[in-house]
Amino acid sequence: MELRQLRYFVAIADSGSFTKAAERVYVAQSALSHQLAQLEDELGTPLFDRSRRGVELTEAGQRFFPHAVSILRQAEEALASARSTDEEPEGKVVFGIPHSASNALALPLLREVRQRLPKVTLELTEELTGNLTRQLRTGQIQLAVLFEDGQLGGFSVTRVLSEQLHLIEPEDASPTPAKGRPPVRPLSLRQALSRPLILPASPHGVRPIIEAAAAMAGLPPPRVEADISSISILRTTLLAGMGRTLLPVMPLLPEIQAGLLRVTPVTRLDRTLAVCSSAQIPRSPACQAVAELAVALMQRLSSSGEWSGSRPLTAAKAHD
């Protein structure tokens, strides 16, 4: 098995076509097909189903794909590590951010890396937390912001900040202006869980955190009336008056500030955000530099109030 065979395989999978893949990797289509045939012979199974519409991964190809991506990225990272210095790291770093944290972190992180790490290429990917966890384990991404929910075994974990969860629901048509209302009293966990909720599908987002908090308090699990794992769809649903959710304020801050959504803090319910990497795959100088920069940036955003509803934690690193 050769790295070029893996590159050709990934190019075909991404392109859905031998012709487009050959153009992408700058080889003749006959050479590409020959190398893929050798790879399939070595693996003892076809990796693609071929038809007039193009090519699709077989079940074996789907299982093989994340490993191929991981191997190629680790090879690139090893090459970049050899060329890097601690003073001037270089290379590509793939950083995963959950949907509910991207509007707080993505743009500031991109700006910070461009300014302070000019030889590092940062690729940001926005995903559900369950997908980020899987991609981090297989090496498809090098760093990710994850929630500390008891499922971070096998990762190097740096706890960075905590966010309180709020009950977020459509603003009612009360004639009393929001500024003239009495201060909002926090809800107990029992009160919050007694309401029907819209939550991400398990095991994504805050769902495991809420279920674990309920179990620890001896309460029934949340009453989920709809599973919505997309922040944009959730926003539309809430604005249409079709339910309520439990989330930190930051993902829906513009709508909250505009008075379109009402928030009520919930006691004893928060989530901890951590910068994570694989404990088995060494960090390159570029990866280490981005991780340190992300931790400092997140704490600064929290301390300054720019990351609304959060509080910084003492960044304690743990290898699980």
TrEMBL record:
Q: Which residues form a coiled coil?
A: none
Q: Where is the HTH lysR-type domain?
A: 1-58
Looking up InterPro entries in the UniProt record yields: LysR_HTH_N, LysR_subst-bd, WH-like_DNA-bd_sf, WH_DNA-bd_sf
> By its UniProt entry, which SUPFAM superfamilies does this protein fall under?
Periplasmic binding protein-like II, Winged helix' DNA-binding domain
PROSITE patterns under this entry?
A: HTH_LYSR (PS50931)
- The answer to whether keyword Transcription applies is yes
Task: Note whether Transcription regulation occurs among the keywords.
Answer: yes
**Superkingdom in the source lineage:** Bacteria
Which keywords does this chain's UniProt record carry? Activator, DNA-binding, Transcription, Transcription regulation
Family membership noted in the UniProt record: Belongs to the LysR transcriptional regulatory family.
Report what the protein is called. LysR family transcriptional regulator
